Amino acid sequence: MFKVNLEGQPLDRRRSSQRILSMAVPAKHKEHAPASVKCGIVTVSDSRTTETDESGRLIRDLLLRAGHSVLFYVVVRDEAKPILDAVEQASWTCDAILTNGGTGLGKRDVTIPTLLSTFDKTLPGFGELFRSLSYQAIGSAAMLSGAVAGVYHGRLVFCLPGSPDACRLAIEKLILPELGHAVGVMER
């Protein structure tokens, strides 16, 4: 934990009279967070179907196990209009939307260019932390991920790679620990 004084300056450990502020999010910030968030899942793939969508099924199972609800689920082709239409439709009933697939460097990977320009705000820390955690797991290939998060029409959107392992990493390490908190902050 990094500690600073009241002016935001790094703590000088030799001066014990300085008041310390912790950079960790206090538990009281999360007290008013919803325990259950209404979620939508959009799988972006030219080859997967609802029957073969391992990543979408994994995301759903992890969200449900954590006490959240899944109100929307669809598999769409890796094309701009179906992706945007699905996210728009999910935004009508969901507070958080998780896409998976279409985030790489392939010519058909258009999730990021389609959605990034529609975000009211972006959450750069999500992509940065995801790639850092991915690097620990898979090495330098982590830099090929375009994972991003942002706010679309007042809804939180996470764009994940299509790999089940990448989805599990993002959900367990980043999204679930902060989902209720993030949605609660947006509702203020």
User: Compute the gyration radius: what is it?
Assistant: 18 Å
Count the E strands.
Answer: 8
Integer average pLDDT: 89
Distance between the termini: 27 Å
Element pattern in H and E? EEHEHEHEHEHEEH
Q: What's the short story on this structure?
A:
The chain is an alpha/beta fold.
Characteristic key phrases:
Molybdenum Cofactor Biosythetic Enzyme, Chain A; alpha/beta; 6 helices; two-stranded antiparallel ribbon; six-stranded mixed sheet; disordered N terminus; single chain; 38% helix; 188 residues
List the helices and strands and how they pair.
Blueprint: E1 3-4, E2 21-22, H1 27-30, E3 38-44, H2 54-65, E4 69-76, H3 80-91, E5 96-100, H4 111-116, E6 121-122, H5 124-138, E7 148-152, E8 155-160, H6 164-186
Parallel strand pairs: 3-4, 3-5, 5-8
Antiparallel strand pairs: 1-2, 6-7, 7-8
Helix pairs in contact: 2-6, 5-6
What does this protein structure show overall?
This protein is of the alpha/beta class and 188 residues long. It contains six helices and eight strands. Helix 2 packs across helix 6 and helix 5 packs antiparallel against helix 6. The longest helix has 23 residues. It starts with a strand and ends with a helix.
